[in-house]
Amino acid sequence: MPITGRSLAPAGHSAVDVTLVPGIRTELGEGPLWDNRRQRLLFVDIMRGHVHEFDPVSGLDRVVEFPWPVGAVALYEGGDWLLAAAGGFYHADPATGATTLVAAVEADRPGNRMNDGYVDARGRFWAGTMGMHRVRHAGTLYRLDPDGAVYPMVTPVSTSNGIDWSLDSRTAYYIDTPTGRVDQFDFDLPTGTLTNRRPFVEIPSADGFPDGLIVDGEGFVWVCLWKGASVRRYAPDGRLDMVVPTPAAQTTKCAFGGANLDELFITTAWIGLTGAERAAQPLAGAVFRCRPGAKGRPPNRFAGRTTAD
Which residues are catalytic? Predict the structure, then answer.
């Protein structure tokens, strides 16, 4: 059954039918990413250490289990997976689940874990850490280069979350969730450096907390709201363009997929909800899909070499 959510701005937008993807319930669903070559949706269930590979055509959801929390998954050029996980970055074989450590990160900080991340247009993987026990300013946003070198890029952060870039790669958008903001930086693509941090949009806490973000094919920024039960689309000038409600308060991240990159997939979570809250939100932890009238971009892929290359 469709769950209808109506865009709030601007006037004249049609209703958006948000549909449940059946059979999926994650504790902490995050990081959806469309593999355009295999036509599969990847996403993680962080604390369970699961990477899901969902086929929208057949409805098959394959789950690969790893021995530690997995904060984000990215794609190598050859199709293998790159994981931002406990203790660092790992190459993973999608077929077997076998892993190889690419670079250690914060292995001496067992109270931290990796969270959201994405690959820039030069094939560098950006992902950050956060404290698992609500310790503020315990995390860092890192950049993993194709040669395996790791650089701290933003520190300190509390809950490193969504990152993506404008169509021309001159602006980076980034979320440290407790700030209640989406920030933007000037970005130098050749060197991979960030400068001139400033707010892009500020979100009142009563509306929820910014979590994952993506940039669509028109340069608009989609932001999921944790405890805000919605996805917001912002214009490049920061104007609120659309709101897509979801039936799960803890909405985490979205990704465009499908053959035409016009389907928006949305992950959610039930972690931390009380029994009463879970009863009131029976679809918490589900994955949803809709066609909001926009299109996404093919995924950037990590340019590093695998052991098989």
Answer: 211
